[in-house]
Design brief:
With 450 residues, the protein is of the alpha/beta class. The protein is built from 15 helices and 22 strands. The protein is globular.
Length: 450
């Protein structure tokens, strides 16, 4: 039995895989930029990474394949992807002899035009399918990331890829998708990360569509918004990202004067501290994005990639994790970190802003904006509140009343991000809900609106 280790990035909702291919060698499939996770998993098993395999040009993270290539691994990818660095390009039906195992490429356009799934064969026996963004658990990956003009065409290509290629495989074949729940590349899905062909044939609602037109409508009706950095990372991965090696870069320490100078010259100030700390006191104009698994998504959605980034952190926060996530979505211009954090800022007698937190039952729906995704809002929200997705808020600030305004989400992190955006554009009399709709429902005993 082939040993396949799943490496889950909870924040991006994606899985990569480390595969033991024998002779103390490993194959890594769809790795993210930092090779550390994969090298650790391989090292624990006494393996070296000999191959890295790409199912498609990723839009939601910077690939780690070029990092592995710098360490001697061979990169395998779709020939149609046009990678501009050394790799072995495959087309439909091409095979790679791994020595006892064989990797066969299956052209499965849809999520992207160049998409390949990979069938791992043990002799002549199918052992696993690495489906990338073609077949997911209870879903398929979205087809609208190339251009609006090609969305319908790619959805129809995906229908054919599924029914002509993937569903012809054995029902008991294990399937290892790249995208999953929590990924903005994915149509809505559950929490399971791996599946089988037979399970998807029976339970996947998109596969139950009676014909191609019904499939396309069901797929496209389920798609929501996605971060704008998706529109540039495909080209980053095609050209090949910068190689940093191990360990990756660290944040440069900056004193108060250096931070003031950088911000004055156009740097963007990112406060990655928890919501309560930001509420109690922050540098005016700072963008609040609390460091957590989804930090990279919201950084990529809201921060300008052309501006240097300067960070404010608490003493106990993980700097290496922040850098990993930042580089993983293609933000290379790390200006540094305010040494001593807010203590140093206040000791230097610099101005400090605050944003009050309130409990969920204290919110007034007339003045409250729920900044969750529309799909979340539709599942259940406090009656009377308005929904503006966080990713769209910056485009609507001028149309909002000057105050009072209360920002809400599921827990408070996105709401504080929203409040920091509004504060930076001149809005005052802002409050943030510490909690979400379920907390309001529990405290008031009233039903949510759906």
């Amino acid at each position: 039995m082939t040993d396949i280790v799943s490496i889950l990035d909870e924040g991006l909702g994606n899985s990569s895989y480390v595969v033991d291919i024998g002779d103390q060698r490993a194959l890594v499939l769809d790795p993210e930029r930092d090779p550390g996770w994969y090298l650790e998993a391989a090292g624990r098993r006494g393996l070296r990474v000999a191959y890295t395999v790409e199912t498609h040009l990723h839009a939601d993270f910077v690939s780690g394949s070029r990092e592995f290539a710098a360490q001697g691994a061979q990169v395998i990818a779709s020939a149609a992807g046009g990678l501009e660095f050394p790799h072995r390009g495959l087309g439909d039906g091409d095979e790679v002899d791994l020595g006892g195992l064989t990797l066969r490429a299956l052209a499965t356009p849809g999520h992207t035009p160049e998409h390949l799934a990979y069938l791992l064969l043990d002799g002549s026996r199918p052992a696993a399918l690495f489906s990338g963004g073609s077949l997911l658990v209870g879903a398929v990956a979205r087809t609208d990331l190339i251009s609006p003009e090609r969305t319908d065409e790619l959805a129809r290509s995906l229908w054919r890829s599924l029914h002509e290629r993937i569903l012809s495989l054995p029902d008991d074949l294990p399937v290892y998708p790249t995208h999953g729940a929590g990924s903005f590349c994915s149509a809505p899905a559950g929490s399971e990360r791996t599946t089988t062909i037979g399970r998807e044939r029976e339970a996947n609602p998109l596969l139950a569509a009676p014909n191609e037109d019904a499939f396309v409508k069901l797929l496209l009706d389920g798609l929501g918004s996605y971060p704008p950095y998706f529109l540039r990372l495909r080209d980053v991965n095609r050209r090949g990202p910068n190689v940093y090696g191990t360990p990756p870069p660290s944040l440069v320490p900056l004193d108060v004067a250096q931070v003031r100078r950088l911000v004055g010259d156009g740097a963007q100030l990112i406060d990655a501290r928890p919501v309560a700390a930001f509420a109690a006191g922050h540098i005016p104009g700072a963008l609040s994005i609390a460091l957590r698994p989804v930090f990279a998504t919201w950084l990529g959605w809201l921060a300008d990639p052309a501006r240097p980034l300067v960070f404010v952190l608490d003493d106990d926060q993980d700097r290496a994790e922040l850098v990993r996530q930042t580089l993983n979505v293609g933000y290379e211009n790390l200006g540094g970190e305010l040494t001593g954090g807010m203590r140093a800022w206040q000791a230097a007698r610099q101005s400090v802003a605050t944003i009050p937190l309130i409990d969920a039952p204290a919110l007034d729906p007339r003045y409250t904006i729920d900044v969750r995704q529309t799909s979340e809002f539709d599942v259940g929200h406090v009656p009377g509140v308005r929904n503006i997705e966080l990713g769209a808020l910056a485009d609507t600030t001028s149309a909002l009343p000057p105050g009072p305004l209360t920002l809400a989400c599921g827990h408070g992190e996105r709401a504080m991000t929203a409040a920091s955006i509004l504060a930076a554009t001149g809005h005052r009399d802002l409050t943030v809900v510490d909690g979400g709709p379920e907390d309001w429902q529990k405290a008031t005993g009233l039903p949510l609106e759906r």
